[in-house]
Design goal:
Elements (H helix, E strand, L loop, with lengths): L14 H26 L3 H13 L8 H40 L2 H21 L5 H21 L2 E3 L12 E7 L10 E6 L2 E3 L2 E4 L1 E6 L1
Parallel strand pairs: 2-6
Antiparallel strand pairs: 1-4, 3-6, 4-5
Helix pairs in contact: 4-5
């Protein structure tokens, strides 16, 4: 608030009076600013508090590189030890299964052949009750047919030799028969011992006589 001071000609103003007037004006201005701040809800303390909060925020502390490296090494070591333990368990389990397979791998085939053994025992027990060789032969043929059927169910098949070309992968020549004619040259003339395959793998070569 400004105060007008009228000075007429001939009047003099003392220096103290001028200073007093200026002090009153400054005091009035401060009072007006204080009232305005109170009305607006602004105080100097709140500004100081806000500034203080900003100043008290602590910066993020960086982890020591050595500590970080040690933690990573410990994690990798733990992972490695777990992997080694899992592999060792897998190796022992696989070795056990392989051993059991070797010892008991023929269990399925043997179980399938046991009925044939039972039939043979019954045939032997009943052999003394009849003297007719025809009956004994029929019994033997039935047992043989049953055995062949069981072997085929396990993937075992005979190697064909009837008028077949001699094949070193299938046949084993035990004799050469000359003078059989050109049409019999290199052909299987006779099979001395039957050969067998297991799932297309030769487990026993057929022993044959070959035309020359």
């Amino acid at each position: 608030m400004e105060k007008d001071i009228n000075i007429t000609k001939g009047d003099t103003i003392d220096g103290d009076e001028l200073k007093s007037e200026n002090t009153k004006e400054a005091t009035g201005n401060v009072s007006d600013d204080t009232e305005n701040n109170l009305e607006n809800g602004n105080t100097g303390e709140s500004d100081k508090t806000e500034d203080g909060n900003c100043e008290t925020e602590e910066p993020a502390v960086e982890k020591d590189p050595i500590d970080a490296a040690n933690e990573e090494i410990a994690a990798l070591k733990d992972k490695y030890l777990r992997s080694v333990a899992e592999f060792e368990n897998y190796r022992k389990r696989t070795l056990k299964e392989k051993t059991e397979l070797i010892l008991n791998g023929g269990e399925k085939v043997i179980s399938a052949l046991l009925p044939v053994v039972d039939d043979m025992e019954r045939a032997i027990a009943n052999g003394d009750k009849t003297e007719d060789p025809k009956v004994l032969r029929e019994g033997m043929e039935l047992i043989y047919a049953k055995c062949i059927k069981i072997l085929e169910s396990q993937g075992v098949k005979k190697i064909d030799t009837d008028n077949a070309d001699f094949d070193t992968d299938m046949h084993e020549a035990i004799a050469m028969v000359p003078g059989m004619g050109d049409d019999k040259k290199g052909k299987v003339i006779d099979c001395v011992q039957t050969g067998y395959k297991l799932n297309d793998k030769v487990i026993r070569h057929a022993k044959v006589a070959v035309g020359q």
